[in-house]
Amino acid sequence: VEGSVGLEQTGKKVLIKKRTKTWTQSSPPQPWHKAAFLLSSGSPSSDNSTHVLVMSLTPSAFLKEMSLTTEQRLASTREMRRPRIIQLLDMSETSHQKVAFSCLFSLLFDGMGRSFFLMFPAEWQNRSFMSFLQVPRLVKVVLESSPYFKLISPSDVCRKVAPGMPSTFRILFTPEENKDYFHQLTCITEREKFIVPIRAIGARAILDFPDQLNFSVCPVKYSTQKTLLVRNIGNREARYCISTQSPFSVDPSIGTLGIGDDMQVTVEFHPLKTGDHFRSLIVHYDTGEDIHTSLYGAAVDVNIRLDRNSLTVEKTYLTLSNHRSVVIHNRSEIIAHFQWKAFVTQEEEDQQKLRLCRMLRRQEEDKMDYFLEECTVDPTLRERLSLLSRSFQNQRAKVQGDSMLFSDDIFTIEPVEGDVWPNSSAEINVVFKPREARLYQQTVYCNISGRETRLPLRIKGEGIGPQLRFSFDQLDIGKVFVGSTHSYEAILFNKGAIDALFSLVPPSTALGSCFTLLPREGIILPDGLQVIRISFSSTILGKFTEEFRFSVNGSPEPVTLTIRGCVIGPTFHFDVPCLCFGDVSFGFPCTLSCRLTNTSLVPMTFNLRIPGDGSGEPSVTSFVQMSDSTRPSWRRGAQGHIKPTEFTIKPCRGTIRSQGLLDIQVTLCSNTVKKYELALVVDVDGVGKEVLALLLTARYQRFPCSIQSVPGLQFCKTSANGNRQCMDPWG
Questions:
Q1: What sign for the dihedral angle of Cα 227, 229, 234, 239?
Q2: Which domain holds residue 533?
Q3: Contact at 8 Å (CB) between 149 and 143?
Q4: How many other C-beta atoms can be found within 10 angstroms of the C-beta atom of residue 659?
Q5: Contact 157, 140 (CB under 8 A)
Q6: Is the pTM above the cut of 0.70?
């Protein structure tokens, strides 16, 4: 069990006593030959590698401890410690005793575990060493050479200590200054060699901190301070280091204080969570003592709130701004500091900072890899590696130091940070500046003193673009003639408060390309208008509904104008319902006339034809037939299968101006025995085929003689050389 020899003013003798009875200290009796030990509050450990005396006491206990005299200290000491054995010895070399004991520690030293002051001049001190074994023991005390400590009596001799008997050792201590001194005694018995430390405790600084500091009930997220007037009541300059843990802090944390001087120490309580908080304020002296002051504070929410949880800003035009207000009511007795944040908790802010730092780290690695590749080409670039690394290091430091106040391009909070005085209110403006014509929603959080959780505020605002409208939504142009050109006008109004930049979206349909809208693009000032000229000329017949779109810069929906109507072909007619040729004879042409009238407002290009007419050579008159013996029709079987063209139209093609007319002559020269019921059809360019038809009728009539009663009658012609050619007049 380790003890220590303490020295002060009066000379004392160190005694060793031998006991044979059992010793107890708040525990059941134990035999002395077993490992007995005592715990000493504040006593040094068995490891003597350091000479700093470690003590952890409250300020009042430390003051009381430092105020004790040596006699008072020794009188109050009731604890013993196991000495540090540095060597085990063979008993057979120095003793005839053959009895082995289970306890290796044969001596116990009492009253050596406390610290006390030394005063000048140094004197003697004695204490009693007692043997707790049941057999005598040889004890030799050796003191290493020291200018401050000297073993006076006995000197370097062995003494046998009987059971329960004391042995006195005298040590002379000669200090040179008022400071701590450390030395050790080496005690040697038959079985072991152990060390008894000697400590001379010099002057001490004592800062009169209180044992407890109670902050009572305080607002959460608010700094409550207590200022202590601390004086150095010791007899040594205080070199101190003061520390504590969150949510408490202290200022100053390190310094010196002369003897009798005082200073102000500010302890701050800044809790982030509601509830009870217990910590210790630790004053560490350069002499090794740690003095603990208990700190306590209770954090609660106070009456601080927003006047609303949601806020809707009126519809706002792009490039303009609008605002609404929210009020922070402070019904407490503190100055509430507020900050508007984008995250609901501090943990989310820290996670965002971590993500940003990781992103910067990846960017730095990519840049560094690229830079190293460039350095292989140009080694002089290696000098810039440090600049690159320092640049990213500064960026990361900026991220870590960012207070993460709310910042947004759409919603702006003014002020984003400030104070609200006790029992007052503060008005906060929320400015809305939309960039697109859509609905915006954002939740911001007010981090304010006196409230543990951040106060949410849901903000909603809608951005609207330019308000362009046509004077009418639909334009019905009715029936228009194909190929005709028509012009219309539509007025485009700007009913909004901002300039409107518009442009025509090109139509994608064939009929849409028949329209021309001018101007195709432009800008309309607020409350202004723009006339849109519309021109239409179509070559496509039929009903139509065409939608034209004007895109407006800043508006998600275009402005539309719907045009509907029907494109019709030219209107025309013949002046007769039909052309009736009556009875016609072979080879005798017959001509009839009709008039084609264009009643439309556009010119009409036409083509006349008779689909049922033959596609062969034109038919011939009887005179031509009789006068030309070389014609194929005189040859037997020369008629073939291709029928001759028997109708002639003059003119067969042309253009009739708008509301004009044209006389048409149709001639029939029959070369075929049949009844004619055909149609004269009109093809109109750009409109279609067979738009109109005129009925043609005729009936083939044989010659007025009775030759029809003579079967096999033929017309024959004899040439000069005697050749004869015949033809059948009935075909």
A1: positive
A2: 468-568
A3: yes
A4: 13
A5: yes
A6: no
